[in-house]
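Private note to self, pasted from the team thread so I don't lose it. Backbone tokens:
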């Protein structure tokens, strides 16, 4: 069987068994996950594992999230198609591609230059022209294009970074894991009439958010977290 067929079938099984069966049934979300070729966001040696129910290493000590977590975080943003979205922690660019399928424009910020460059060329090669990858400290958000109709952080924050709340548009949501190296809670912040409401969703496990409003390597490791480049 050709690769194209093999991966397309594996992806359909992933969408049905890991996503829809666990209760995420929004047709736009399922279509987006069916369209993005997750295997092309992974190192060659790991491509055949792309559609398994788990996170995978993408280099520089970083990981691409389990498909279900990508789907859940995306669905919590409640996107309708015309939004300007911000992602912190581009990594491979996979989450950005899923967002690009569901929103008008995606700005994504990555602090590792090698990861940012690889993700940028991958997204262009795959035709995701409505994404912009920036190499910077994403704990500061990306003020140039604010406000955003949805913000997603794919690294663990100790506290919700103030700049991200400031860059959130009225009526919009910020989704992020908050906690330490022992584990985090996925939180949703909603901005309504100038006030913020927060809701806890489920326990998760992410690599640390660094930068001005993120974890210092020492504090993260003090609680048993892995050292990383
Ligand atoms: N969303 C990614 C996976 C994210 S892994 C994907 O779909 O593949 C978390 C990423 O956050 C890592 O690449 C890490 O380098 C990045 N990161 C951590 N702190 C950051 C910061 N302050 N600014 C930007 N990126 C950061």
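Design output:
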């Amino acid at each position: 069987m050709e690769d194209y067929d093999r991966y397309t079938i594996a992806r359909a099984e992933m969408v049905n068994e890991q996503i829809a069966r666990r209760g995420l049934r929004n047709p736009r979300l399922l279509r987006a996950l069916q369209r993005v070729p997750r295997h092309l966001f992974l190192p060659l040696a790991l491509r055949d594992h792309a559609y398994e129910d788990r996170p995978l290493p993408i280099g520089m000590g970083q990981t691409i999230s389990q498909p279900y977590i990508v789907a859940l975080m995306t669905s919590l943003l409640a996107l309708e198609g015309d939004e300007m979205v911000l992602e912190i922690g581009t990594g491979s660019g996979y989450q950005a591609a899923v967002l690009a399928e569901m929103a008008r424009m995606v700005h994504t910020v990555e602090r590792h230059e090698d990861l940012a460059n690889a993700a940028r060329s991958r997204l262009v090669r795959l035709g995701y022209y409505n994404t912009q990858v920036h190499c910077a400290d994403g704990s500061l958000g990306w003020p140039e294009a604010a406000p955003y109709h949805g913000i997603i952080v794919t690294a663990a924050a100790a506290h919700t970074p103030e700049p991200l709340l400031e860059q959130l548009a009225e009526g919009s949501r910020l989704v992020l894991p908050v906690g330490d190296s022992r584990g985090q809670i996925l939180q949703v912040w909603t901005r309504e009439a100038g006030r913020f409401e927060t809701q806890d969703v489920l326990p998760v496990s992410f690599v640390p958010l660094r930068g001005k409003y993120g974890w210092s390597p020492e504090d993260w490791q003090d609680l048993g977290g892995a050292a990383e480049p």
